[in-house]
Specification:
It is built from eight helices and 19 strands. With 355 residues, it is an alpha+beta fold. It catalyses: ATP + (deoxyribonucleotide)n-3'-hydroxyl + 5'-phospho-(deoxyribonucleotide)m = (deoxyribonucleotide)n+m + AMP + diphosphate.
């Protein structure tokens, strides 16, 4: 491979802000795997945000890219999997599998798409130093008329349109809105864009904790909600605390620590065979990187309020943010019924929005 922009390369990143800023180039924030595509003739390499190779996991994308994108180019975008009118991040996670036979099977069952939103090189020209508006024009020209599995991300310069997208697109499984200065050159691995994500709050039962890697202080709180049958389901974790706060939380929760998981709603977590029977929180995975996933059961008696952006199935898509204790709430009142559901929106309408 001989391109004017070569791997390894880390993509340009965004920092979170509370409101959509005016005077920007706006795009939807996709809920998938950030990926860079390098093509030099028949050679195609797909790399992750951390430069890890993704090519082998998406053979149908490799074939589609060969048919749909210029013969020599470097693209920045997102790999997504859609089921019906929504993105499905769980199905995308399943695509990362060590077995070649499984990779091929999933490529047929849950084919992925690539949504391109930046062009870093074309033919023999590097575009990293070109302003965004020039790269965008080159991208739409290079991918004009493309179709599944390669799309160009919709974009607008109108703040009102971006605000409408922010309200509507969540129903199609998208994360929010990304805002980019129109004259911004491409700056790898720097947080020079901004992103506005949806945030809601929920009252959750704190039913366990994991120790921090440095010692016996709180690393993360394990959060639960009761389902319609009265079972406490694990919905995610809250983990962003200062070291002082980790020590404080450990002292606050120490009276709730159980000697064993016996009698705990998640007692099956302690049984290895239970993990083999199905996907359970706390099980080792390809994404755990060998981390210690052991946990400390707590009597499920305390309630906290957390902020979250959106749900993926029956759990929080990202780590929830601890807001406060809720001594006024009873644990059994913490149910899925309190969660806000976004209005449904067809993903096909997102992909045919203005470019």
């Amino acid at each position: 491979m001989d391109l004017p922009v070569m791997p390894p390369l880390r993509p340009m990143l965004a920092r979170a802000v509370a409101e959509i800023p005016p005077g920007m180039h706006y795009e939807a924030k996709w809920d998938g795997f950030r990926a860079l595509v390098f093509r030099d003739g028949d050679e195609i390499e797909i790399t992750s945000r951390t430069t890890k190779p993704l090519t082998r996991y998406f053979p149908e994308l490799v074939e589609g890219l060969r048919e749909r994108v210029p013969g020599r180019c470097v693209l920045d975008g997102e790999i997504v999997v859609a089921r019906g009118p929504r993105l499905d991040f769980d199905a995308l996670l399943e695509r990362i599998h060590p077995a070649e036979s499984r990779v091929r099977l999933l490529a047929e069952r849950t084919p992925a798409s690539f949504v391109a939103f930046d062009l870093l090189a074309l033919d023999r020209t590097a575009l990293l130093d070109a302003p965004l508006h020039e790269r965008r024009a080159a991208l739409t020209a290079a991918l004009r008329g493309t179709r599944q599995p390669v799309f160009v991300a919709p974009a607008t310069r109108e703040l009102a349109v971006a605000e409408q997208w922010y309200r509507q697109y969540e129903g199609a499984g998208l994360d929010g809105v990304v805002a980019k200065p129109p004259d911004l050159p491409y700056r790898p691995d720097e947080r020079v864009m901004t992103k506005v994500k949806h945030e809601r709050t929920a009252d959750c039962v704190v039913a366990g904790l994991r120790h921090h890697r440095t010692g016996p202080v709180v690393g993360s709180l394990l959060l639960g909600l009761y389902d319609a049958r009265g079972r406490l389901q694990h919905v995610g974790v809250s983990a962003a605390f200062t070291m002082q706060r980790r020590r404080q939380l450990m002292e606050e929760l120490r009276p709730l620590v159980m000697d064993s998981a016996e009698g705990h709603p998640w007692a099956d977590w302690a049984r290895e065979e239970a993990h083999a029977e199905g996907r359970m929180p706390g099980a080792p995975s390809r994404w755990s990187g060998g981390k210690d996933l052991s946990w400390v059961p707590l009597r499920p008696e305390r309630v906290c309020e957390v902020a979250y952006d959106h749900m993926q199935g029956d759990r929080f898509r990202h780590t929830a943010r601890f807001r406060r204790w809720r001594p006024d709430r009873e644990p059994d009142s913490c149910t899925y019924a309190q969660l806000e559901e976004p209005v449904s929106y067809d993903l096909a309408q997102v992909l045919t929005a203005p470019r």
